[in-house]
Amino acid sequence: MVSFPQMRKPSKNKKPPISAIVPCYNEEMWAGEGIRGLLSCSWVDEVIAVNDGSTDKTLEVLNQFKGQIKIISYQKNKGKGFALAAGISQAKGEIVVFMDAHHLNVKNDHLKDLTFPLIQNQSDVVLATTEAHPPDVCWRFTGFRAYWKKDLLPYLSQLKKTRFGVEIHLNEIFKKKRSLVIKPKGLVHLAKYQKMPLGQIPNATVNQLIEMASALLQTKGFSPTRINRTFDPGKIKNLAGFKKALKKFKDQDVVNLLKKYLLAYLEE
Predict the structure, then answer these.
(1) What pLDDT sits at residue 195?
(2) Could you give the domains of the chain?
(3) pLDDT value of residue 185
(4) Beta 18-24 vs 46-52: how paired, if at all?
(5) Cβ atoms of 215 and 169 closer than 8 Å
(6) pTM score of the predicted model
(7) Buried-exposed string 22-53: b where 16+ CB fall within 10 A, e elsewhere
């Protein structure tokens, strides 16, 4: 059972500089509100937005904040893992906070609650999830989280390759570390079905599932070639197709791993 405690406010611990990294891919509708929310939070010392090859007006929205935030921009989409790694490499803070552009209503107390456990040496990673209705079965892959930058630096080259699988990859890297999950009151996270036309949801969900599975398997030493051959996005159209592809893996430990980390949550 996961607990969601109310964090104690530190009295003696000195706050280290904190950088917030916001990966953005086609987030023109939400990026502005997310960035404004972060800029209103005095607890954050630096905001870094990464435009990951957006094809809409995301970059135009980010440029409205020139002089207030650091902007990294790529013409071609490189994936969320690459975007976060780029932000980490340029972050000046000792603590880095990752926040999806479609996390809304972020407040100063949200950032404090997210980083206090690190500052107080109570945890090595803090994940923040929201009170979703219906519940978000993939909350373990939340895009709102905090780490010490020094703990991430050794893994930047790996993170660059993970694309949508970056959160599951991070969970694997830190699975033996101290982790904490909190539910900041009032924090809003838009689910996939709230951000896109209904007809696009199934394919987007399956593609994200494939990338998350690929990231997890690569952490276990499986070659990208075998993974791509087994989980071919052109052939897998739904969850049933994903399960069928999964049967091609002869390593039962890997099958159990994917069932535990992915399928179990999707079927809750």
Answers:
(1) 43
(2) 18-193 (3.90.550.10), 196-266 (no CATH)
(3) 84
(4) parallel
(5) yes
(6) 0.73
(7) bbbbbbbebbbbbbebbeebebbbbbbbbbbb
